[in-house]
Design brief:
- This is Synaptotagmin 1.
- The chain is mostly beta strands.
- The chain has a single domain, classed as C2 domain (Immunoglobulin-like).
- It contains two helices and eight strands; from the N terminus they run E-E-E-E-E-E-H-E-E-H.
- The protein has a four-stranded antiparallel β-sheet with strand order 1-2-3-6, with no helix packed on it.
- Strand 7 and strand 8 form a beta hairpin.
């Protein structure tokens, strides 16, 4: 079982939250795969937004960062019909600035979408030291104002459990 990190909500249509892990300390020899729980914090209660499973691998020889969005489950219902039309955005920030992004296809009428979509980004060994990865789950809205369901933020500014968890992956290959 992977580690679980909370998500915090700042306003209705903003980032639902972020988790930071130091990409620069990644164990470059292993594929990292885990589930992360999406939470939002309202003033009074925690709201369950679901979980996302993805894998992450960096290949220094070819300067490729490979991200596979596997699946999500128990997503929050965003539409009136009790379902969502989820898709996932994968974004990279370099030195805190938006840099590259890709997104999955939309899965219709489901709260447990299976994506299994792979994205490859060119990232040099120098750049990986300063790259943050943001994985966000969105609801594709017919009215064209897509809403964020939840977000994962992995980057070089980590603390607490996230930092410890990432450091756990530094064991010798």
């Amino acid at each position: 079982g992977g580690a679980v990190y909370p998500f915090y909500s700042f306003s209705k249509h903003d980032v639902i939250g972020e988790v930071r892990l130091p990409v620069r300390d990644m164990d470059l020899h292993h594929v990292i795969e885990e589930w992360k729980e999406l939470n939002a914090e309202s003033t009074t209660e925690f709201e369950r937004l679901g979980e996302i499973c993805f894998s992450l691998k960096y290949i220094p020889v070819t300067s490729k960062l490979v991200i596979v969005i596997l699946e999500a489950k128990n997503l929050k219902r965003m539409d009136n019909d009790g379902f969502s039309d989820p898709y996932v955005k994968v974004q990279l920030a370099l030195n805190k600035k938006k840099w590259k992004r890709k997104k999955t296809g939309v899965k219709k009428n489901t709260l447990n979408p299976y994506f299994n979509e792979e994205f490859t980004f060119d990232v040099t060994l120098e750049q990986i030291q300063n790259v943050d990865l943001i994985i966000s789950v969105w609801d594709h809205d017919k009215a064209n104002k897509n809403e964020t369901i939840g977000k994962v933020f992995l980057g070089c500014q980590a603390s607490g459990n996230a930092l410890r968890h990432w450091s756990d992956m530094l064991a010798d290959p």
